[in-house]
């Protein structure tokens, strides 16, 4: 039979451990990052290429014609809008043209992988809708690795410049992580 003193000590130990674990779990860091992504679809060295889509669609509406297209990307991330500014990482993933009419919208699944600077070796991933023609788009962060382990948060994306279909997108990202 367990003594009353042992039972009380055991309950106190369990209560202490639960408090310590809960306190550690609540200690989240907030990181804010700003960078630019270069989505290059034309020229001799594109960073985003269409890999699937409808080729027999005859609509005169360019948005409807692109509906269902899927592209794979490996876009450079830089500290400033100029492509020759410091490279900090790559945005790698897939986006699909997901809107049929009156809107140019993408479904994106991307991982932003940092290859230099204070976040070197860390990543965060997004999954969500990107209505490209909106001035500001909010995209959810669904996870991360390295310094961004267990990340969640959001990206605010703004088109900095667009020439034909090549674009420079500015990102302001807020991450909650451990």
TrEMBL record:
<comment type="function">
    <text>Dirigent proteins impart stereoselectivity on the phenoxy radical-coupling reaction, yielding optically active lignans from two molecules of coniferyl alcohol in the biosynthesis of lignans, flavonolignans, and alkaloids and thus plays a central role in plant secondary metabolism.</text>
</comment>
<comment type="similarity">
    <text>Belongs to the plant dirigent protein family.</text>
</comment>
<keyword id="KW-0732">Signal</keyword>
<feature type="signal peptide">
    <location>
        <begin position="1"/>
        <end position="25"/>
    </location>
</feature>
<protein>
    <recommendedName>
        <fullName>Dirigent protein</fullName>
    </recommendedName>
</protein>
<dbReference type="InterPro" id="IPR044859">
    <property type="entry name" value="Allene_oxi_cyc_Dirigent"/>
</dbReference>
<dbReference type="GO" id="GO:0048046">
    <property type="term" value="C:apoplast"/>
</dbReference>
<dbReference type="InterPro" id="IPR004265">
    <property type="entry name" value="Dirigent"/>
</dbReference>
<keyword id="KW-0052">Apoplast</keyword>
<keyword id="KW-0964">Secreted</keyword>
<comment type="subunit">
    <text>Homodimer.</text>
</comment>
<dbReference type="Pfam" id="PF03018">
    <property type="entry name" value="Dirigent"/>
</dbReference>
<dbReference type="GO" id="GO:0009699">
    <property type="term" value="P:phenylpropanoid biosynthetic process"/>
</dbReference>
């Amino acid at each position: 039979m367990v003594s009353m003193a042992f039972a009380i000590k055991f309950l106190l130990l369990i209560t202490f451990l639960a408090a310590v674990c809960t306190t550690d779990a609540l200690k989240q860091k907030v990181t804010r990052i700003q960078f630019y992504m270069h989505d290059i679809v034309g020229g001799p060295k594109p960073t985003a290429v269409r890999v699937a889509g409808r080729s027999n669609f005859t609509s005169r509406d360019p948005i409807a014609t692109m509906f269902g297209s899927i592209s794979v990307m490996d876009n450079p991330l830089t500290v400033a809008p100029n492509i020759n500014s410091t490279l900090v990482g790559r945005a790698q993933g897939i986006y699909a043209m997901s809107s049929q009419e009156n809107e140019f919208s993408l479904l994106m699944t991307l991982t932003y992988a940092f290859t230099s600077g204070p976040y070197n070796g860390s990543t965060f991933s997004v999954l969500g809708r990107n209505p490209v023609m909106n001035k500001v788009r909010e995209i959810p962060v669904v996870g991360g690795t390295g310094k961004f382990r267990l990340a969640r948060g959001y990206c605010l994306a703004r088109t900095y410049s667009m020439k034909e279909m090549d674009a420079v997108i500015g990102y302001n990202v807020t991450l909650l992580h451990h």
